[in-house]
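Final paragraph of the annual report: two paired records, presented back to back.
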Amino acid sequence: MIRVARLVAVKDLRVEWRSRVILWQVLPFGVMTLLLMGFAEGPETTLSPSVAAGLFYVVVLFVSMLVIARSATIESSPGTANSISMLGLDPAGVFLGKATAVFLEVLLSALILLAGTTLLLHLPLALALHSLPSVVLVVMGLSLAGTLYGALTSGLTGSPTLLPLLVLPTMAPLLIAGERTISAIATHQTWSSWLGLLIVFDVGYTVAGILLYGVVEDS
């Protein structure tokens, strides 16, 4: 399973590296969205950490949906689907590999967007650094859930719009926990419970993906 996961992750990352879609399309979209939010607030406005964190996670959600949709499109192409079927690859390994590739792509974008949030939305740098564990856990959850639901909607009519409709309700707890973690750190409150919720979510979707990805992919 681990070997298959590594091969699939490398394959997806190589495809993205050659296409430069993340670099030239997805990431600029996220940065432009942050710029628009900064312009809307105005240079003299200082947002609370809670609001800045909420806006940051909304942009990360937009970016992750683009990455997840592209990952599902790559896997649903006739050549790739037939090759996986003929090779008899372990579905659990395929799920972990695709989720890993999505995680690395979204995490890179999220870190750049977090730096942009400190500049454009005035999120304190120290607060941004302390929130990195929660950002990693949120991105991991988005990647796991998105990969599973991406396989579910792959090949269906209207899948580009069906995917957000199905996956957004499951991602809402992640975004809320991520925002509350940053708010708790900013106000010197206990935030370990929010990190615990993120860990539970990530573990749950890891187990669900390993068990169900093959069934979902064949449906």
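The closing record of the year follows.
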Amino acid sequence: MNTEIKVTGHKWSEEALFCKSVLYFEQMESYTANEWQYGFWSALGLEFLARAALAHISPVFLVRTNNSKDWVNLAYALGEKPTTKKHPPTSVNVKDVFFRLHALKPDFNKEISNFCTEHMDTRNSEIHSGHLAFESLRGFDISPRPQRFF
């Protein structure tokens, strides 16, 4: 990875998330599309690129709000430091990131949203099971590369 790129700013800021995606995409580029690591790093980069796009609209769109205690997540997204104890900020899951981008940005159409969701399903299978999901996709083509939506 390029050690010259520094991830700075609020953890949910557009800048921090975008810098992290760049680091992961640089790692992806150190492999060929025929290697499983290429798909793995592309999935990690894609998640943070999508989160950066949503944070560009507002970091508030990254907030998970499932119950009355999740107001702390909203405060965090707005840069406030809640006084509650032991409540680490929790962001929305990545499938909701794609759903929100699709709803908010017309260019993030259903085809792109579906591709992103399928890529995250592969990543989830790789990370949360014994399945070597990216090994089975060796040589897949993710061209054309996703465009920046912000």
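The mean pLDDT is 86. This concludes the annual technical report; the extension proposal builds directly on these records.
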